[in-house]
Amino acid sequence: MKSQTLLIAILFISSFSFAQEKTTDKPKFNQELATSLGADQYGMKPYTIVMLTTGTTKIEDKTRMSSLMKGHMENIGKLANEGKIVVAGPLLEKNKENYRGMFIFNTKSKEEAEQWVKTDPAVQAGVFSYEIFPWYGSAALPLYLKHHDEIAKENP
Known about the structure:
Layout: H1 2-21, H2 31-37, E1 44-54, H3 62-81, E2 85-90, E3 99-105, H4 110-117, H5 121-124, E4 128-138, H6 145-151
Antiparallel strand pairs: 1-3, 1-4, 2-3
């Protein structure tokens, strides 16, 4: 039930933000771009969402925890540079599901997404666990990544 509620919320937010950006002038359809992004006839494609949850391992050593989080961030950057992660980020509020953050992976394969999330040092150490969900969203989603460095003054 909680996974259905989460997915409905994500789809609602995605639909709402997509609708907010529409203008009255519809851009000309670009078949080359659609094909390069793997878009279907609706401009959409399957992805896999990984929700990071609080893991079973509690690490009190601040130096060790800092090292794991540094590795976590470096791994996100590596996967993003490889085109595997298209969205990643922490949740800003505690929740009853203990969701800590999320990845949207550029794959429809839950198995492939699981292989990728297992490369995270914080997952390997048990600081984070995860849940995996199939998701259907805009094929243009990865395009925002090329602009992120232009708007970020610092890396976390």
